[in-house]
Amino acid sequence: MYVYQPLLASIRRFKQDRSGAFAISFVMMSGFLLSMAAFGLEGSRYITERARLSDAMEQAALALTAEDNGDGAQRNYDLSSDYFRAYMRHDVDVFKPKVIVKSGISPNNQNLSYVEYRVSGQTLQDSWFSSSFFPSFDDQVVIGDNGAARKFRSNMDVIFVTDFSGSMNDGFGGSNKLAELKRIVLKLSDELFSYNIDNKVGFVPFGWGGKEGANCDFPFVSNGPVPSDVLSGGNYKALERYVNIAGSVAAIPNPVHDIQIPLSAVNTSTCLQQSSSWKVPLTSN
User: Fold this and answer.
1) 130, 41 in Cβ contact below 8 A?
2) pLDDT for 102-152, tens place per residue?
3) pTM for the whole thing?
4) Which residues contact 14 (CB under 8 A, 6 or more apart)?
5) What is the pLDDT of residue 27?
6) Are 118 and 210 within one domain?
7) pLDDT value, residue 138
8) Which of 57, 110, 141, 171 is deepest in the core (most CB within 10 A)?
9) Does residue 177 form part of some domain?
10) Residue-number span of the structural domain to which 200 is assigned
11) How many domains does the chain have?
12) 38 shares its domain with 97
């Protein structure tokens, strides 16, 4: 009996001794506590990063809508990626964004034509508290979001004022300036008419003056009568003395016919009198 008394006493002391009890429970719960801390801190950071990415998406969509480069343009992807990088400070990589372009007619806005750009993208982020000892986020996390913007197109009137002087026959990009001018004007006109919102296009060719009926017309407000020899000789510097620049700007868009001279009184290189070029008023045709 006496042999077991020391052993029983030791067991009783162990049962009564509470020192270190909390250390044991802390060790048992440490994984859970560290996991909660990691998810709390890292999770809130990722929520913030996603909010920043959402702002980047919205700004990118607005920029693309303003530029309206069309579906599939490389500029759409380059500009969107630039916005991602500007907003996302801690990203490891930016994946190629996805850009969807939609257009149509809105019945709720007086049948206005619109174009809409939808941008979605993802960035790769490094986790700060990733660990294999307790539950946490992966070493790297992909964050994604999207944004959209819509622009309504109202009808517009466009006047092309185009140079048809002899210098337009000079070479340019494998052709000449005149051929490139025609290509651009036709492309822009086709695009304007494709919206079906009553856009109108006008055309004013010129070459040291414009043809206005039987007259050579210079649409400037003048300071006084212009001698015919100034216009017939193509004297640019002499003509400047008779032009009221401030008055000419202020007169826009009203027509001005202060400086006119009969085509019969000017030389053959003036006002395109030897060509079949005529002013075309605003038309949807």
Assistant:
1) no
2) 888 777 656 677 889 999 988 888 887 777 666 777 778 888 888 888 887
3) 0.48
4) none
5) 62
6) no
7) 78
8) 57
9) yes
10) 157-283
11) 2
12) yes
Instruction: Reduce the DSSP state of residue 18 to 3 states and report it.
Output: coil
Torsion of Cα atoms, 168 then 173 then 175 then 178, to 10°: -30
- Give the dihedral sign, CA 128/50/55/88: positive
d(CA 275, CA 269): 10
Closest CA to 226 of 199, 266, 280: 266
Alpha carbon separation from 180 to 30, 124, 165, 214, 240 (Å, rounded):
74, 45, 14, 29, 30
State the distance between the two ends of the chain, measured CA to CA, in whole angstroms. Answer: 120
Regarding whether 187 and 277 lie in a shared domain, the answer is: yes
Q: Given this model, what pLDDT does residue 31 score?
A: 61
Query: What is the Cα–Cα distance from 279 to 257, expressed in whole angstroms?
Result: 14
Encoded tokens for 272: 């395109």
**Structure-block tokens of residue 175:** 């052709």
Q: Which of 94, 127, 153 is the last residue of a domain?
A: 153
Tokens 């085509």 found at: 263
DSSP 41-104: HHHHHHHHHHHHHHHHHHHHHHHHHHH---TT-HHHHHHHHHHHHHH-SSEEEEPPPEEEEEEE
What does the buried/exposed string (b/e) look like for 23-45 if buried means 16 or more CB atoms within 10 Å of the residue's CB?
Answer: eeeeeeeeeeebbeebbeebeeb
Q: What does the block give as tokens for 249?
A: 């700007």
Backbone angles phi, psi at 276, to 5 degrees: -100, 30
